[in-house]
Design goal:
20% of the residues lie in helices and 35% in strands. The chain is of the alpha+beta class.
């Protein structure tokens, strides 16, 4: 059962300049900032008419769109393409190339899985979704589940959220992972860890989830890692048996297609662990990132304390990990080699750190947020988050937007220039978990209310 409300839905049609009615404004923006993308003159049309081979034109159209995306923003690529397709009938015919749209969908929107009928439709869909993110067009839903099987009220505290194309996975303090179907908004299954002796009241608390459309992996504070098939019966298999006395507490866990990464606190020199997710083999143990937070790691087993650290994986097979005073970037393929190490004398907000594609965001205790490239540490933009240190801000980021939740309010910034865009209309109160991807945003409040916002680019 769920309840939902919606803002004015997107009603654009793909017949307008290949994409949507917003392209008129997009074209104007492109012309103001990059004259190279203006439509060609009539003399140029005559000069190039039906001369160049199709593979060359496809490559040219792709380069123009990718350049517009990098220099101006992802939404500008549509206007740049529309200008290319206006040159002549031969150039316009390139717009029917599925290979072109496949390449652009992968490069601009980071999508490799076809959900629509064609790759052109896939590109248009994610263009509209990103535009909806910019203009605050979404549907809001409150998700429900039956809590009658929870004995301890503290067990209903949500500790982490993870999204895939099909599912929202919610990890709770009692070790349960509840899975919701994003299409129906229904709770479809609950997964639990195997029983074992507990070392602390919250040793079974879920600290991280990796979910795809076929497999669910989750870790608990005592170091156990469990795997289950989705969809399917709620049967879990323990892939790794934690040794909390020897390794410390597993305070955060994440992963991607090839890797699992755990962040530990409690035992010096063993802060980071990397597994090959295909073989489930441990390939690296080491690092001193959480050594100063060792005592806090042990406290987490018995008390509902704050977050010691956070780790997130980029699309470049690197990971970003942080505590409240330090951020490191390390290589997953090369024994956890540290590629960047930054100290923050005034401290950062651990729960506001997040990764999207090859970029990551951090927020200082004084409210200054920075978005950087993980591979070069180049600063892409900066903006100010009011009350970040006092309100315990939680943050997340997708390919185009950074979202910060504090004081019950969710605010959105564009990460290409650091421009503040808007605040969500819904007030959510204090939140324990917060996540977003290119389409959805989810938050779980301290009152256990589970919110979902859908920016999907349907017609």
């Amino acid at each position: 059962m769920s309840s939902s409300s919606s803002s004015s839905p997107s009603s654009s049609s793909p017949s307008t300049s290949q994409f949507d009615s917003g392209n008129a404004a997009g074209t104007s923006t492109v012309r103001q900032r990059r004259g190279d993308f203006e439509g060609p003159s009539s003399s140029r049309r005559r000069a190039v008419s039906e001369v160049w081979p199709e593979p060359f034109l496809e490559a040219l159209a792709a380069q123009v769109a990718i350049a517009a995306s990098r220099n101006i923003g992802r939404l500008a690529a549509a206007a740049a393409l529309a200008n290319v397709f206006q040159v002549c009938s031969t150039w316009r015919a390139v717009s029917r190339s599925d290979l072109l749209w496949h390449r652009l969908t992968r490069r601009i929107w980071g999508r490799t899985r076809l959900l629509q009928d064609t790759w052109r439709d896939e590109y248009v869909y994610w263009h509209r979704t990103a535009r909806n993110f910019r203009t605050a067009r979404y549907a809001h839903t409150i998700l429900y589940f039956d809590p009658s099987d929870v004995d301890d009220p503290d067990g209903l505290t949500c500790r982490c959220l993870t999204l895939s194309d099909n599912y929202l996975a919610c990890g709770f303090a009692d070790g349960a992972v509840r899975l919701f179907d994003l299409a129906t908004r229904l709770h479809v299954s609950t997964y639990r860890p195997h029983h074992r002796n507990r070392l602390g009241r919250f040793s079974r608390a879920v600290t991280g989830i990796v979910v795809s459309n076929s497999r669910l992996t989750f870790a608990t504070l005592d170091g156990d890692i469990h795997v289950a098939d989705v969809p399917g019966p709620p049967i879990t298999r323990r892939a790794h048996l934690g040794e909390v006395v020897n390794d410390g507490a597993l305070v955060d866990f994440t992963g991607c297609g090839r890797w699992w990464v755990g962040l530990y606190a409690g035992v010096p020199g063993r802060a980071i662990r990397i597994w090959d997710s295909n073989t489930e083999e441990l390939v690296f143990v080491g690092g001193s990132l959480t050594d100063p937070e060792s005592v806090m790691g042990w406290y987490m087993l018995t008390e509902m304390t704050g977050f010691v650290g956070r780790v997130r994986v980029t699309t470049q097979e690197t990971a970003v990990a942080c505590t409240n005073s330090r951020v490191i970037v390390f290589d997953l393929r090369n024994q956890g080699e540290v590629l960047a190490d930054d100290q923050y004398r005034r401290g950062i907000v651990v729960t506001a750190t997040d990764v999207s594609n090859s970029a990551y965001v951090t927020v200082g205790n004084r409210g200054l947020a920075r978005v950087r490239r993980a591979d070069t540490s180049e600063e892409l933009c900066r903006f100010t988050v009011r009350g970040a240190g006092q309100m315990g801000v939680m943050g997340c980021m997708n390919g185009g937007y950074a979202l910060m939740c504090g004081g019950g309010e969710i605010r959105v910034w564009e990460v290409e220039r650091g421009e503040y865009l808007y605040s969500f209309r819904e007030r959510v109160g204090p939140v324990n978990a917060f996540v977003c991807d290119e389409r959805h945003v989810a938050a779980c409040g301290s009152d256990t209310t589970l919110h979902l916002w859908d920016f999907g680019g349907q017609e």
